[in-house]
Each structure stands twice: as C-alpha cells, then as structure tokens.
Amino acid sequence: MNIRPIFTYVLSAGLLFASTSCEDFLDINVDPNNPADVPLAQLLPTTQVTTARSVGLSSRGLSNITSMYMHQLVQRGTEVNDYAFSGTTFGVTAPWNTLYLATLTDLKVMKEKAEAEESFQYLGVAQILEAYIYSVMVDMWGEVPYQEANLGEENTNPTFEDGAAIYADLFTKIDEGIANIKRTSTLSPGEDDVIYGGNMGNWERFANSLKLKMLNQIRLTRDVSNEVNALLSSGMLIQNQAQDFELQYGNTSAPDDRHPGYVEEWAPGGAGWYVSPYFYEIMTGKRTFFASNILEGIQDPRVPYYWYNQVAPDLGESPENATSYYDPATGFLSIYQFSFNIDPNEGFDQGSSQAVAGLYPLGGRYDEGNGLTVNYNGYGSTPQRMLTYFSLLYTRAELALVGASNEDDVDLFRQAMEASFAKVNQVASAAGAPQITQARRDTYINSVMALYEGGATQTRLQLIMTQKWIASFGYAVDAYNDYRRTGFPILHDGNADLLSTTVRGREFPVSFPYPIADLNLLPGRNQRNVYLDRVFWDR
C-alpha cells in the first residue's frame, strides 16, 4: 500500500476539526476550511497515520521515551537520560494529545457516521483501532479517561477509569469489531485503508492477535489459558509478515511521506539520539562495562541494518571532540546512559561521528562501512511496525513456556527468531540492501538455541525477552511492557557497572505521568508517581 495518498486524506480530514474561519472568502456562505462532513474514506487513513505516529519512533511517539528507557537509544541533555520525565515532557504530552484530540476524536466521528450509514466494516475497523489505542494508553498510564472521553462540552471532567475495567471492556469491543467487519456493509474500506487495503480477513487476524497479546499482558492477574488456547485453535491469528499491523511510509519529501523518525534523525546536522552502547554490546557479543551478557561471544548479523556508523572502521579516522564510547574496529561512537554532566563528551558535538538509528528501525541506511555523514542519504520508507508476526511468535513462546498454552516453546522460539530475521530482510529487500544469508542467520540462531535448550525456565524467559527486545527496535512500547511484566531483558544499571562516569539517580519508571495541562483542568485528579504507581497487570 503506497502511503503517498495518505497525506491528501490527512489534510482533508483534518479540516473537519480546524478552528480557522474564512469570512467572506469569495463571498460564499460555506466555509471551505470547515466542511460540514468528511467521508469515511478520509477519516480512516487519518486515524491510521496519527496512530502510527503516536506510538512509533519519533519525537512525537511513545517509542521515543520507551526506546531510551529500554536502553536501545540514548539522548544527551534531557531528563530522560536518568529515568526522569514529567507531565511537561514532550514525549509524554505529544502522543497523549494527538491520540485524544485527533485520533480518538476522529474514530468517534467515524463510528457514528459508519453506524448511521450502515457501513459496518468501517465501524468494525474503527472499534478495533480504538481498542488497540486504549490498550496502549492503559499500558502506559494505567488509568485514563475512557467511557467519558471525547464528549466535548457534555463532559469536561471525564472520569479516569481503572485499567483492569478498561481492558475487560476492550475485549468486548474487539469482539464487536470482528462481528461488524463480517456484516454486509453499504461502503467498505479499500485503498483508503492504508494498513490492510480493505482486507477484512487481515483485520480479523490483527484483532485476534491483539487479544492474544493483551491476554499475555494480564496473565499474572488471572488464568488466561482457556482464552489463549481458544484463540490459538481458531486459526485466525497473524500467520505471516504480509499480515503485520504496520504503516508503510514512502520516500518523497514534498509532501513528506517518509518515516517521521527518519525525517528527524537523518537531517543534516546530526541525530538527536545516540544508539545505546549497551544495546551495541549485547548485539555484538561484548561485555566491557557491565557484569553479564547472556549473548556474550555471539555476533548478531543484524547489526549493519540496526544503526549506521558515520565513522568508517579501521581507517584511522578521528571522531569529533572527546569521546565517551568509541570502538575504532567498527566506527561505532556513542554516549552512556546515566552520564549527564559527568561524561567526558559533555557539551561537545558528535553530530557527524555518532552512530545513528539505521535502516531497520526508521529507514536510514544499511551500513556498508563507508562512514558517510548523515544528510538525508538514507531510504526513508521503512514501515512503522506495531504488531507483527514475529512479535506474536515471541508472545506465543512466552505463553507456552509459562504453561498458559499447549504449544511447544522451543519450536516457537526458533520460529520467532527466524521471523525476526525475515523481517529485517524484508526491509532490506525493499531498500535494495544486501540480505542476511541463511547461513549467517542459522549460525546465530543455533548459538542462541543451544543456550535456550540447556537453560532453566528463567533463562529461557530471559532469552525470549532479550530476542524480542532486539527484534523490536523501532517500536519499544512492547519492550517496555515486557520488561515490567517479566524483568527481562536485563538492562544497564548505571550504579552497578564498571564505569565512573555513570550514576543512576532514579528507579526504573513503572508508568507514564499525566500531562500537566490536562491535570490543571481536572479538579481532584492527582499526578501519578511514575516510580511507584504500577499499571494493573504489573505484579
């Protein structure tokens, strides 16, 4: 599905909520900037684009902060460098505001219009999208406005509802959505559905896969085995990467339909994120500044797809200014988490030397070792992944391991890793980059499987979560959830490493804070203590 038409849809549908007026424009009585009605075919792609933007990897997406807290990325000079954020942090307020003010508002209009017109497939898709969004928001914030949200002047002080109650209702909403996409519909999504192209079978598979993911999320709160096994036996889950729930971006700049993270990070002048040295060492099998790497000695062939080194390896080049972490053998240069104001690189620019997020997470460039300086010389059209075949396989492996399903965790774990490599190759193929060979893939997977098959349950769980964390680069929402639920992967601890330049001053945040601007309008609502106030499924 080509994303280029999306931006026409977005601009048109966005006008529905514009506040600008054009008095006496051409002496007509209808304000062209505020149409009285917007077709379903324009509302649908608008909600899909804003959903992906709000959860994805860019400054406006939830994967921004979660990628840093999950030690895939690092950022200098911001509060999140030491697990600190607040109700004014842009990475908190931007996705919250977009989801409530734009996406969920548009979905409300879409549902009302679809029901009135008996366009039930649009109604079902809207319900499934809404369930996905609210599940993510509960996972981040715990208690959020739900039944009373987006009512406008009818209710300006909505109740923040219990996350468990919202989750319970979301399962019902998903079932209603599935039922509606199977009904005879006056109008049906087609090319305007920029995720699935109007394929209702894929929407059903995504909806069921979302339910399975949510059941795994709450498995510590109750027995979910019957529901899990029913979904597994239904045959209607995501079964291949062609059915992945993702938004495919384009590669044009006018209008700009490229991955938003690419637009930000590959601009001339340098990236805002550094790739975490901890992530680098986990994937390259090293362990120079921390106590334990379960993958020590195992080289991951996905490395050149994950980040791009602006310094060429082994050519005697010198990076700009003082360095914090630099491996001349590969050209990888970065800074440490937990090093604000004590790092030797503090205050120095590394914009033309630092490793930047590459082809796989946001459409950068495959690292062929040439050490080019970032200047919009990447690809740009890598999809924003949200729920994929490989992530579902890791979920199924976890459920099998803990006894919540009747499946084989060993077989599923291998399948999940194979699917993870296939996803990287899919992105590489689209960009014209080299493929990971089957021989290199199998060497890596066999090494990991040897650890898995010889490990106890906790070691197996750690390996599942570690591999899922690696594969998730570019969408860290699930990794943040997985860590809170399982304690894996093991993360870098600035107070327990071998460095004198890292100090962790805070505990790991177990939820997100509410935007201050909204709290100020809601009498009696208290801010979350992000280090103590866990979401309902986090036991």
TrEMBL record:
- Name the chain's protein: Starch-binding associating with outer membrane
- What's the domain of life for this entry? Bacteria
Cited PROSITE patterns: PROKAR_LIPOPROTEIN (PS51257)
- What InterPro entries would the database entry show? SusD-like_2, TPR-like_helical_dom_sf
